[in-house]
Design a protein that fits this description.
Length: 357
Amino acid sequence: MRTSPHFVGPIATGIPAAEMALSNLAIEDGLYDYEGNWFFCALDGPRTPVMRIGFGRGRFAGTDYTAQTDGPLAEMPAGFLAVHVEVVTDEGAVCYVPAGAFDPNGVKMAKGRHEVEYLHEGKRIFRLAGWPRIDCDFRSADGELTVTAQVDVETVVIFPDTLLPNNRFAMWGSVGKLNGECVYRGERMALKGSAFFDHPRIRIERTGAAKFGFYLYQPIRLSDGSHIISYVTEDFAGNRVADGVFVMWISPEGKVRTLWNLEAFEMKLDGDRHLETWRTVWDEAGVRMEIRAKARPLPLLRAWGSPMTVRTRAEYRVFPLPFDVEVKVSEGGKERRLSGHGLSEMIPHPGLVKRMA
């Protein structure tokens, strides 16, 4: 059984959230260059299909992700604080992203329990408290966008480390149920569905890995109550990165099946160079899973928060992209067909995007 050097517990095995070591939740000052808490949410109903909220504090070697050796990403200060409150409605995405606008030293973390809070000029920007039930409160500094929710985390899975040339990326993910409310410019929208909560830890180090190409992270909620976490990482030459390619299928009861063998991967980009359609085929140990995904072509309605915040969908490289899937699973001569939806995050190296366009 493989274990992680950065988290307590086995890799690629379902851990009941109530039994997870609390040290896995801690933001470890001095041990890691970057840590964060992020929610990727696949929700009921057509009004708010997906949402991404969370924060990350610290820095990583941005040169792995950009062709530049200078600029905001490459020159991230040690205490950089990123906050995202991104809600995608049936009309498009509203994204509060105050990149670099806040003092990271203002993040307050409780001792011995999971509670993190940040205030800006006396106003709360975010607060997370509790485990395995997490109370969440995220809001824009101008008060125009707020998200309050309660997430009951059920199953945790520790991922293997992914090595980039200058970053060692460790993370665990989880699945739970979310209930809450979003308010944008006075409109109240009920939130209910699945939340994928994750905790990344990054150390800056020279690993000897090949030049980064892209990663594609896809949390998916399926029609039978199960969930999928799909992760694909390739280097710049198109080779798959060891331990950066897997799909985890989590049953409603919390059982995790992990497939490591990606037999086929195809994708097509839209005019903004975001994913339009993509297909993955996983085949291992008598199980064959085919995932066909199609993005919902929704616009960026508004992005705000700081001078660094991008203003167009094409510039928004980590645009919160909602998508629908059809999944076919073959095992033991039987075939299952499932539908679902989720939120995709893809970060490609700029040079690779130009080559793919």
